[in-house]
Design brief:
By secondary structure, the chain is of the alpha+beta class. 20% of the residues lie in helices and 33% in strands. Strand 20 and strand 21 form a beta hairpin.
Length: 341
């Protein structure tokens, strides 16, 4: 539901002109992007939205962003959560002013399908690393594995892998590890919401993992191997969801590259307003739009939860700003302005 900021200050049952719309192939309907905007450099740089890519194995997340920058001609682009080269799946890439939403999308929960091999440990905790230990894989029932998974559900302290991008004494941890230097990483609090056993065909098991941002699935694989007493490492990883976006929303990178060639890539562009669908949505009248574009607060139509951020859109449905309610002043204050002057 879109709340309209008008004279009557009433909630309207009319949905946003750019609310989620599904096409026959279950992808999002694209926002309007006229032919002139696709060729005019100045207009192109104002294009704002989200491309959800099904990243293939073998490319870094940065590689995908570079492909998108070249294909769209828009330099202002970035992803919201790294996938290792060996991993595939949902990679959310923000385009244009929508990159200002990165802090919230990067912090969103993720979901994965992970394949682990028991009985073998590597120094990187995945199949790319050097084998450091092998142990016989015990005969385990599905019930025994499920019981071993339970202590990892909830808020846990997790030590990142030694081969990670975390900075230690001014260097990346993986740089120190490659140099043979000790890597002392402190445990971090993460949350595992769900951890389900999908398949157990010794010595490999497949898990469905719903976790908070910042969770290292490689560390989870390693720690589970320690708990089972035989060691383990990650052999395959596929991200099935990032925030509200799932594989159903993702376009294969190859198909997106074909769309760059034909000039039809915009049909995969999701409006920025739909990137955070669970936040309140307020439509602002034209006379208040310029105030917000200049970073000024505007009167609130009613009281909002001061802890809840609000998506504010124009009459055309374009995401204008992310705002927050100030209960002391009864005002909405901009946190991030996407359509600045």
């Amino acid at each position: 539901m879109v709340e309209r900021h008008g004279a009557a200050w009433q909630a309207s049952s009319r949905t946003s002109r750019r609310s989620r719309r599904r096409t026959r192939n279950n992808r999002w309907a694209s926002p309007r992007l006229n032919l002139h905007a696709r060729t005019d450099p100045d207009l192109l740089q104002r294009v704002s939205g989200v491309l959800v890519v099904d990243k293939p194995v073998g490319l870094t997340s940065h590689d995908v962003v570079q492909i998108i920058r070249r294909g769209t001609g828009i330099r202002r682009s970035g992803h919201t959560g790294t996938l290792d080269p060996r991993a595939s799946g949902v990679l959310v890439v923000l385009i244009g002013p929508a990159v200002r939403l990165s802090e919230w999308l990067s912090a969103s929960d993720k979901r994965y399908m992970a394949t682990l091999r028991l009985g073998v440990e590597t120094d990187t905790y995945d199949a790319d690393g050097r084998v450091v230990a092998t142990r016989p894989c015990p005969e385990l029932s599905e019930a025994e594995i499920e019981a071993a998974l339970q202590p990892f559900v909830g808020e846990i302290e997790q030590v990142p892998p030694p081969y990670s991008a975390i900075r230690v004494r001014g260097k990346r941890a993986y740089q120190l590890a490659r140099e043979g230097k000790p890597v002392d990483l402190k445990p971090r609090k993460v949350r595992i919401y769900e951890l389900n056993l999908l398949e157990w065909v010794p010595p490999e098991l497949v898990l469905d993992i719903h976790a908070s941002a910042g969770t290292y699935i490689r560390s989870l694989a390693h720690d589970l191997g320690q708990r089972l007493g035989c060691g383990a490492h990650l052999t395959a990883l596929r991200r099935t969801q990032s925030g509200s976006f799932t594989l159903r929303d993702a376009v294969p990178l190859r198909r997106l590259q074909e769309a760059f060639t034909t000039g039809e890539w915009h049909k995969y562009l999701i409006p920025a307003v739909d990137a955070l669908p669970n936040w309140p949505l307020l439509e602002l009248p034209p006379d208040l739009v310029d105030k917000v574009r200049h970073g000024h607060p505007v009167p609130a139509p009613r009281a909002f939860d001061p802890e809840q951020l609000i998506r504010v859109v124009t009459e055309q449905g374009d995401l204008l700003a992310i705002m927050q309610y100030d209960p002391k002043e009864g005002m909405l204050r901009p946190r991030k302005v996407l359509m600045a002057v």
